[in-house]
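Q: I'm teaching a short session on how sequence maps to structure, and I want students to see two examples side by side rather than one. Could you give me a first protein with its sequence written out and its structure tokens following it? Keep the formatting plain so it prints cleanly on a handout.
A: Of course. Example one:
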Amino acid sequence: MQNRGFIIFLAILFAVLCLFSLSFTLVSRNVESNAEAYSEGDVELKKQYLDSMWSQSVYNIGVADFTYQEVKV
């Protein structure tokens, strides 16, 4: 029981890191959803949209911007 505070700290730290990692998945799915809506089922148009978003900033966390390429990887 001596390290209870440390264990709680580690649990909170891991939870925050997991949520941060999952946020990239949500942003990536949002971009892909926008591509699907834009293309209306046309596969080639969807590819073109995603290619155009590849180098665009899609996620801003205040201290860093992430492009679609960085979010997807």
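Q: Perfect. Now a second example for contrast.
A: Example two:
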Amino acid sequence: MHKSQEDFHSADMDTGLSQSVYLGQEFEKRRDPEHLPPRNFTERAGESIRTIPKFFRSDASAFGFRAAAATMSVGIVCYLEQSQTFFLQNRLLWAMIMVAISMTRTAGQSIFNFVLRVGGTAVAMVGSYIIWYIVVGHVPGVLVFLWIWIFCAFYIVIKMPKLLVVGLLSLVTAVLTVGYELQVKKIGVQASESNGQPAYPMYILAPYRLATVTAGILVAFIWTLFPFPISESSELRKDLGASMYLMGLYYHLAHETIKSTIKDNSGDVRVKGTHAHHLEAARKTVFSKLVFLLNSLGTNSAFSKFQIPIGGQVSTKCELLSPIWHTDRP
């Protein structure tokens, strides 16, 4: 293959795989239909500046803006003088943290994760009651039951990966609430309230934790759908198209490798700069992206059933492509 032939780069796919697949120095770079190649230092500097808006209009940047806006919609309460005391006393910091760690890019996955987070916190609230009140707040007994609870939580994390969020949140919530009550017993109520947060007993603190976590998850869910939701179905179609493109590219790379090997003009694959070395590097790059896309396809396919159907029913399996071959003919 010569330099004058068609360049083979992966298109800028809107799937998080925006890096082009460059096949080495023997192939042309992808051409910009709006700009000629830079010819001097000024134009090369301008090309570097153009990468800034390209970064900010990416999907990752848009999701980051959503996450920041969702977090600040709760955090702004702390920055206002009239509501700062309310923020501290009611522990809205927990809600703000949950907003930041609960945001997901697609709607179906967000619904699934939000249900698991609320469920995990509710389970941890019950567990906190058991840990604290079954031994009437005695520290040695509390530590023993807390250890048993941590053991059970890590069992879920290790043996049930699909319920990872439930295990982690039940662990964190139990340690947080029980640890706070142990702190109050150790240093006293007055020292514990020095940060502006009132010291509640366990039967009030645990529901407070559940309420703030639920509020934070609700805010994150609203910002996942606002101003528009991103569905798993649309991401699945994009990933499917990208994977088909990459499979075609991988086939061409394999074909070119076999052809150059038969003609014995590709050089040694272990020597940098040879045709064989560039093809080998390109095949590994394309294959790694294909493996990543397979994981993305499986994830989006699994979470697509959690989408909220608005309008017509959500298309599944091959129904999205049915108009292609199910056409009415006279």
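Q: What should students look for in example two?
A: Point them to this: The radius of gyration is 28 Å. Also worth mentioning: The longest helix spans residues 232-263.
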